[in-house]
Amino acid sequence: MYDILIIGAGPAGIALAAEARAVGHEPSSVLILEKGTAHNWAIRQFYPAHKKTTANYKGHVAQCEGLLCITDMSKDETIRFFDEVIASYDIDILYGIEAYGIEQKEGQEGRYFHVETSKGIFDAHVLTIAIGVLGRPNKPKEYRLPPSLKDRLMFDITTRRIENEDVLIVGGGDTASEYVQHLFQQTNRVALSYRQQEFTRLNGANLATLMAMEGRGEVLILRGSNIIEVQDDGGRPRSIFKEEQYRARTFDSIVYALGGTTPVNFLRTLGIAFEGGMPKIDKTGETNVPGLFLIGDLTVSKTGGSIITAFNSAARAIKRIDKLMRAEQLSH
Ligand SMILES: Cc1cc2nc3c(=O)[nH]c(=O)nc-3n(C[C@H](O)[C@H](O)[C@H](O)COP(=O)(O)OP(=O)(O)OC[C@H]3O[C@@H](n4cnc5c(N)ncnc54)[C@H](O)[C@@H]3O)c2cc1C
Predict the structure, then answer these.
(1) Number of domains in the chain
(2) For residue range 141-155, what is the model confidence (pLDDT) as tens digits?
(3) What is the complex's ipTM, to 2 decimals?
């Protein structure tokens, strides 16, 4: 059980871990889970190579309230700045882990968060979500998705709990493979449509697991398959394939794993209240779910904030989180 679990190793998540370490939380009690293979995955992906990182981005005031602060610097210097923060505050980050679902549970030590991820379960007393707003799901470009099937065509597996359904997953990367594994465990009958014949983008573990599942008949893999149309078949999606060997088939749900994320859906499944399209939080970032915090771009506006506003939200959150943790330690 971690004291503080943080989802997302961007400026906000890293700043919160640094703040937590600075007020005395042990390295082993604070953990960041990051879905990318390196910290600041969003910055690495979305900042152009020769971009200058400006401290007062989009007019956000460059006034730092906490431990971390930046001045104008290059993209490389920005990444190095975070390398140094992670090393000097001894921050523990696990990479390549995407959080799927979160539940609150009651245990001997009181209430805690039970986080389901692509690499197993993580439990924590305090949970902070720092996943930014930069990811957007990629949608198929070749055909139109019928609006009537909105709830049956998904871009992640957190929008709705999928159980005991016929599900088609579309994609051929690690996310698609991990969705296959997760949805099979959730008692679904799973098919995977991939436009290529060979899975060249999968990491070794995901490739081995997928092939073993296919061998055991746990997933039907439609290799070299291209969907050209999705029809509404009495409220369920019917996929029509270009290739003659794949007959049209109706599923309960289709999940597209074509890259990108949908942060808002992720939050709705946690039971976080929304107001005017934004999650409702107090000034420390705590939501209506006690012990569950949101920091960084998620808390600014739909268009996001800046690196310094992310740092400042972490500085405000740690004051409340530290109080919560100390009260909890006193009670045991
Ligand atoms: C093109 C561009 C240029 C910008 N230029 C500047 C600038 O010059 N100066 C400035 O101050 N700001 C700039 N910004 C804004 C700044 O980058 C953001 O405000 C800042 O990165 C927000 O930090 P964050 O930690 O909230 O989110 P992010 O930086 O988005 O980090 C979120 C992290 O969470 C991870 N994640 C997401 N979902 C999950 C999940 N389900 N499970 C696990 N991990 C997950 C992501 O991979 C990522 O590493 C720019 C933004 C863009 C798009």
Answers:
(1) 2
(2) 899 999 999 999 998
(3) 0.99
